[in-house]
Amino acid sequence: MSTKSNWRIPAAITLGLTALWPQLGNAQEKWPTQDISIVVPYPPGGGTDLTTRALAEEMGKALKANVSVLNQPGAAGSIGTLGVWNKPHNGYTIAANGLLAFSSYAVMGLSEKTYKDWNIWIATYSPNVIVTKGGDGAKYKTMPDLLAALKAKPGEITFGTAGVGSGGYMGAEVLKLGTKLAYKHIAYQGGAPAIIGGLSGEVDIVPQLLMELVDHIRAGKMNALAVLMDQPFKLSGAADIPAISASVPDIKPYLPMGESFGIMVPKDTPPNVVQAIDEAFKTAVKSETVKKFAAEKGSVILALTGDEAQAHVAKLSSIVSWTLFDGGTAKISPEKFGFPRLK
Amino acid sequence: MDWQYFLGVLHFIVQPMSLFTMVVSVFFGLIVGMLPGLTATMAVALLTGLTYKLSNEVAILSLVAVYIGAISGGCQSAILMNIPGTPASAATAVDGFPIGQRGEGGLGIFIATMSSCVGTLTGTLCVLLLTPPLAVLALKFGSYEFFLLALFGVMICGQLTAGTDPLKGWISGILGLIVSQIGMDGMNAYPRFSFGVLDLMSGIPLIPVMIGLFGFPEILYGLVSSTARAQVKTTSLEMKKGFGIIIRNKLNLIRSSLIGVMIGIIPGVGEDVAGWLSYWAEKKSSKTPEMFGKGAYEGVVAAETGNNAFAVPGSAPAAVLLAALWLHGLRPGPLLMSESPGFVVDISVYMAISAITMVFLALIVSKATVRILSVKSTILMPIVYVLCTVGAYVISNSIFDIYLVFIFGLVGLLLREMSYPAAPFLLGIILGPMADNSLRRALILSSGDPSPFFTRPISLIFASAIILMALTQLNAFGWLRKLLVHSELKE
């Protein structure tokens, strides 16, 4: 035990000094004066990771600083996010996340901090897309085909997703809310296995993000029946994908559904720092790198900041929290955090 | 095949900058692979960030080279210290360590390295020639097959490592499967056995368990019996003898490579399974199966060839490699062949040349590493101890992982004291989530009907193999014969 307290004291002093450092120096004048890291709370290669890396490079150019991306996966991304909160609130550690995933933390008991505690910038958005196996063996050619099948065999059409709480699952649940038709949920360990399940015909439908499915749609291996948006999606290198609202009008209040990717710093970060990040973010989302990335990956650039971003995540929090709570997955009521139910 | 792609990639690779990058990357991979805890997954992930600003060709070359180096590097610590450098080399340790203890560490490393190289080369060739038909076969693998394959993997591993009593191996494997159930379940995200502890909710991570199970007992035994280890004399590489062994194992090399390629094509199954399966196949067809586990060269050849012939994405490090390719603007997937037809050729050539470079580098490095055997364990073991602890910590910078090393270190010690093998425990943890999720997914798909496990063609093969194995080992046929003889006598 004595060794434990021995290292704790110097550690506490060091930590204390680190936390105080910006206040001691003239932090109000110039930011950044050191390297910045953006924490991606997932392993490399996912949507958040890829978006953040494209964004980080451009923000680094705008801020004239080194912006590096760190992957800190664990507990659905909540461990990395909590890690950023526990670092000094000085803008040198920025959190990145998919905001749909982030919105589930409160009701899932993973974090007490909600969107109200963070400054949020939203870069891109990729909608859920309802796809089925393409080619000659295609079971469904259009969305009305699928709706008819869902009606004829309630609870028997299989939907393969990356698991409860994932973007694909939320897409399927929102479709259920709009159509009032039950489906059979099949959870896979991630988006890629779910897509393979769809390609091999093990599941009928894969409702994952367009970002993940874009090349399979372009190659004709999968049929895109609809995007969960209120307007058709123009995808480069493939036919336009019809809007879900055309065949399921009741789904409108929940649209657009999909994952949006962005960065966040705690609300009490000094205003000059927030200002600097804001300017760098706005430059970055206008860059060719990010534009090209979005077009290739079946995403739209949203570029939401400030109140707009807060409103976007507020709506997401309501949809996600209530869906998880009503489905029995989340045990904490969204009311505890003041998330209203969408009408 | 288009020869212009070959000429193009060869022209690129002979440039000084490319050669330099490749040699440095293979070397880095070897070192990382050798250190327990620092795995191939990590080597690639570490480099992914660093290569973001390099040109595409150079970056991909260096990622491929690191991957090849790291997967092969794991054999050295397995042979010399019985601590696998990466989970994939656990099968190598079974025979590799006895070889090292016999004083043939250099020879063991030579054989393992040559087998890795042959495995990579055959694997690459298969990918070039057979990818489209194999990909069709891979889609035949559904949830039913995944479950049975996981079960089969744990069972053969238990049987192979248990020595005299396969039941002990299976018990160890089942314990591993049970431990792997800790954390959020894969179907409903419900936390199981986590007691509200956040660290437990994300599940038991593999690397700290591996370090605990294998490293911790070695360290303790090394310190207790400090003389035993210091006695081992180092030997030269004995290249001539090594080549002789490799040539004698022609069939073994071909069979193990094919097993590696087959397993590699199935998404989500790792190199470790490939290593164990080819080891099992070799033992089954050997004339002297009793030598396996006591330092049979064939065992090392099979395990290393199998886990390196795995040139197709499916494992965790290969998945990180794919992610890295994404970052560099390539799109692995259905469009790859039509969008960048030269790419598969490029990667194959990178792999082949890295594998050959790896042999030379590994042999040079092993000149130094075999001396580990003659270092006094009172000096060596504290160093290994620090490396193990750091290795466990750096994966996710979590102190909790260091506690896990100690907890599973004690588990490893107990298992060893009671002569239960640790390898099935490790494989149980690796394959547990796959077994659990596939089984439940399969039963949801079939609405609770278990018959597809026995009616789908690939499932049927696995299911009969598993049942046969269990029955023979439990001597069910012996009982049956006795029963029959008995009843005949009565009549």
Task: Explain what this protein looks like in three dimensions.
The complex is a heterodimer of chains A (343) and B (491). Chain A has 343 residues and is α/β, with parallel strands linked by helices. Chain A has helices spanning 2-24, 47-63, 78-86, 99-103, 143-152, 167-179, 191-199, 210-218, 271-285, 288-296, 306-326, and strands spanning 36-40, 67-71, 93-98, 118-127, 129-133, 158-161, 184-187, 205-206, 222-227, 258-266, 300-304. Chain A has eleven helices and eleven strands. Chain A folds into two domains: 10-19 and 30-126 and 259-337, 3-Layer(aba) Sandwich (D-Maltodextrin-Binding Protein, domain 2), CATH 3.40.190; 129-254, D-Maltodextrin-Binding Protein, domain 2, CATH 3.40.190.10. Mean pLDDT of chain A is 85; it is low at 1-5 and 22-27. In chain A, 41% of the residues lie in helices and 18% in strands. Chain B has 491 residues and is an all-alpha fold. Chain B has one domain (3-479). Chain B is 76% helix and 1% strand. The radius of gyration of chain B is 23 Å and the shape is globular. In chain B, 53% of the residues are buried. The model of chain B has no long low-confidence stretch (mean pLDDT 80). The chains are: A alpha/beta (343), B mainly alpha (491). Chain A binds chain B through residues 43-46, 49-50, 53, 57, 68-69, 71-76, 78-79, 108, 158, 163-165, 184, 186-189, 192-193, 196-197, 199-200, 202-203, 215-216, 218-219, 221, 296, 329, and chain B through 45, 48-49, 52, 139-143, 184, 186-189, 198, 201-202, 267-268, 319-320, 322-324, 326-327, 331, 333-335, 338, 396-398, 433-434, 437, 441, 444-445.
Helix content of chain B: over 70%
**What is the domain total for the residues of chain B?**
1
Helix-strand string of chain B: HHHHHHHEEHHHHHHHHHHHHHHHH
Q: What's the CATH class of the largest domain in chain A, please? A: Alpha Beta
The count of β-strands of chain B is: 2
Helix proportion of residues of chain A, in percent? 40-55%
CATH architectural name of the largest domain in chain A: 3-Layer(aba) Sandwich
Strand neighbour order, sheet with most strands of chain B: 1-2
User: Mean pLDDT of chain B, as a whole number?
Assistant: 80
Strand order of the largest sheet of chain A: 2-1-3-10-4-11
Name the structural class of chain B.
mainly alpha
Radius of gyration of chain A: 21 Å
